[in-house]
Amino acid sequence: MFSRRDILAGLGAALTLGTMRPGRADAVLTEDGLYRQPWFLDSLLELSDDLAAATTAKKRFVIMWELRGCPYCKETHLVNFARPDIENYIKAHFDILQLNIIGDREVTDFDGEKLSEKRLAEKYGVRFTPTFQFFPETTDGLASKKPRDREVTRAQGYLEPKHFLAMFRFVAERAYEKGSLRDFLRANS
What integer pLDDT is reported at residue 186 of this predicted model? Predict the structure, then answer.
């Protein structure tokens, strides 16, 4: 016989693990205090390899910088990524590597330098969370460029779902080659 406490505990666990929503898995709060999508990239933290793998899969490579306790990171996970249209579009077109802006895992940058997540964030001038760095389709010439010049575009801070999806479309459609995100939004609103 199950007690009311057993049933509530089971329901709470099911909601936490996302099993109450058929067909999709929700973000999970990890030990390091970051929310994580189950479809995010599992990586050995070698950026050149991650970009090459994304290109082979006909996807674009993105780094999402986060911080424990960041309310806008949480909102991105629980609002934006929770929308099936956004989740499905991003999963089809992008590989996202999640990094911690103050983390200490060792990452190998495009130029071969090995440094902590925190030092990599400093190297690229990432100061806000969430920040999304979008990279080109190949590593050709990336190692010789300055860190900020390696990105095709960047999104800093929380974007409402409509603009969030537009940012990913902006990159997937290579619209950054023709104009700014602002121009893209105006043309597609």
Answer: 87
Which residue's entry shows tokens 């899969």? Answer: 57
Do 101 and 118 form a contact (C-beta atoms < 8 A)?
yes
Return the SS3 of 44: coil
Q: According to DSSP H, which parts of the chain are helical?
A: 4-17, 47-56, 71-75, 84-93, 117-124, 161-172, 181-187
Amino acid at 146: K
In this structure, the number of other CB atoms found within 10 A of the CB of residue 10 comes to 11
For the stretch 1-56, pLDDT in tens is 443 433 333 434 444 344 334 445 588 988 889 999 999 999 999 999 999 999 99
Q: Which domains does the chain have, with CATH numbers?
A: 25-187 (3.40.30.10)
Peptide bond into 136 cis (omega under 30): no
Q: Which two tokens stand for residue 156?
A: 């800093």
Helix (H) / strand (E) element for 66: namely strand 60-66
* List of the chain residues with pLDDT < 70: 1-25
> Helix or strand or coil: residue 143?
helix
Rg of the chain over Cα atoms, rounded to whole angstroms, equals 18
- In sequence order, what are the beta bridge partners of 153? 134
